[in-house]
Predict the structure.
Amino acid sequence: MAAFCVTVFLVLCCFNFFDRKNRKKMADTIAAIATASGNGSISILRVSGPESIDITAHFFYHSKKQQDSAGQPSDSNLPESEPYLSSDSLVSASTHTIHYGWFGPSPEELIDEVLVLIMRAPRSYTAEDVVEIQCHGGGLAAKKILELLLERGIRLAEPGEFTKRAFLNGRIDMTQAESVMEVIRSKSDLALETAEDHLRGDVRDCVRQMRDVILTDMAYLEAALDDPEHIELTDYPATLTSHLDSLEQKIRSLLKRSENGRMISEGIRTAIVGRPNVGKSSFLNCILREDRAIVTDVPGTTRDTLEEDVRIGSVLLRLIDTAGIRDTSDVVESIGVEKARSEITNADLIICVLDSSEPMTDEDRLLLEKCSDKPCIVLLNKSDLSPQLSLADVQKECAVYDMGKTNILEFSAETGDGLSVLEQLIGELFLQEFCAEPDCHRSKEPVITSLRQKEALRQALDSFDRIRQTMDAGMPEDLLTIDLLGSYEALGRVTGETVEDDLVEKIFHEFCMGK
Ligand code: GDP
């Protein structure tokens, strides 16, 4: 037990060094406008730190006519010539209370009518005393209020500094901190739900469970090395191997699902391909419901790729309209054709457009073959014209290339016929991919979307390999402690428990102001 405690203590000491340095910086009080600039109805300022309530109270006035909880004027015996009273009520206010009043340097120079929210440490976003001031929107009132606060010694917050404080104060871990920006940047229901799961701590809990297993193994090993007479190490390699196997399986499945994570957060990369003039740009405009791409009946006009996001149900598609694929001697067009070919390789989904008013050509066949190893939807476009190409013809062709995952639909970009069937199909195709069980809305297991977290998981796998090599080589057991510590540290990088100072700075600098 003693050895276990010593191990835990050493591990915690090793990785808390960055914490102390940042804590010093957190003794100051910071403020920023949290709402986006522009014409909105309200603006919100955030203030966090030890002086946030006192300094806000200094500029806060309430109306003499303001009523108390019993409905009586709170200060009825004061002269009419002093309609606004300096208010100390904020200083003694309970946590999570809202106060109505005016804000300004003096009762004669009030800036704006405000609502002030008081959230006392540790029950606040940063786990420090936090004040949120709601004033009228448009930006100017908020700016003037901010200037007053800064004049009084509060420092302007850096981007992401409120969330950084929440992290450094231990209220959230790094996966939750990163999810704050994921929530803000979400472009689809699925992305938002995944980010909210991260915010609730699904990745943190999963990683902490794995770290606990390693910590227990480390403690056992330390204890056995300290007390070889009473604690046996004969079966330890077998036990450790079985623990590593199970952890490795968990990490590999997290990494596998993280591919879905990319599609969820960045959108499903969808290449629209086909030979010139089959209606690719018309299809893009049809699904976007706006004239985004140039449509002409002159073949070869789309020479570069064009990217647009579209939300279909709960998924996001990143649509890429490519140049028509054909052999061409035009230099500019041929660069576009090359780009289109590489888009097929990079895409998660291909929408292959054929012109059903013409018979199938060799170029169409070649294209179908190229799409054969990817999830692909073939659109028989121009279904409003008299058909020269049937569903059966295309099915026969697809069978030649063994395109098991292909779905073929009759479609008209001109009339929009087939659009709802297509949207339903895309939803089904990808919700299946994201779900573990057929009926679930999406996988219940954590889905990692951050490249940084993925990299840390890969490092954990590398350190597992080193542990196995140490065991296989029959090296002394105390060397295993070093390898185990390496894997513990790698997993700690996911949750931020073992990230270096400069990385912490870098991560939070990508945040927006006031967050
Ligand atoms: P792209 O070169 O493949 O991008 O093809 P475009 O979208 O530029 O379309 C080429 C021509 O086909 C244009 O004249 C479009 O108006 C026409 N077109 C596209 N889709 C349809 C359709 O569903 N029905 C009909 N009748 N014409 C279409």
